[in-house]
Automatic annotation (TrEMBL):
Gene source species: Oribacterium asaccharolyticum ACB7
CDD domains registered for this protein in UniProt: RPE (cd00429)
Biological-process GO terms, alphabetical: carbohydrate metabolic process
Cytoplasm is among the record's keywords: no
UniProt entry keywords in alphabetical sequence: Isomerase, Metal-binding
One Pfam entry name: Ribul_P_3_epim
GO molecular function: metal ion binding; racemase and epimerase activity, acting on carbohydrates and derivatives
InterPro entries named among the record's database cross-references: Aldolase_TIM, Ribul_P_3_epim-like, RibuloseP-bd_barrel
Entry keyword Metal-binding: yes
Name the record gives this protein: Ribulose-phosphate 3-epimerase
Amino acid sequence: METKKHNILVSLMCMDFLDIKEQLKILEEEMDGYHIDIMDGHFCKNITLSPDFAKAIRPAVKKPMDVHLMTTNPSDWLDPCIEAGVDMISPHAETINTNAYRTMQYIAGAGKKVGITLNPATALSYIEHYLNRIDVMTIMTVDVGFAGQKFIPEMLDKIRQAKALREEKGYHYRILIDGSCNKNTYEMLLEAGADDFIVGGSGLFSLHEDLREACKLCKAQFQEAVSKVEGRESANHA
């Protein structure tokens, strides 16, 4: 993932699968990277993308690919994802805490960025012992498994805590938001301390029937939120 101030990643489970090649061409030009949801039908009651999907599209894209492992046994999926050429692997904290250090060492040893994902009901304290080892903390603002869910406002406090803890301890992780990122939530997420955002149906694909126009609208809506937040911060420091 790029280290600019904010990145917008596209949730590929929300794309039009009848037009993958053309859509990837547009997304590669317009957006910052890709988010690939891998589900096993057990950790959450859905099955979406796979390491084979990541491998198939890798030659067509150069932007970073983030894999979100919504799987009961994430260690089973590490080698296929690494071999697919992804850039970051984010298992769920709820699934790796019996072997978290071994899992993170394996991901990092393969030259990939280490992510960790928290379900909405999982406290930040659950992962406090290895926050110094992660590159990205993904905070779910909806329950796992399905697109189109309503934003859970209680997650704003978790984002604030994650930002405060990073500043207090000098950690380097970026805060990535997964779930209902759109024009209705950008401002509150930015103010809480989010760095990067995953957009899907509500934040991108539903904005316009022409994907390039949808990308432009998405970025314009996001930039409007950034400008408002930065404007208020400047006024408060004046």
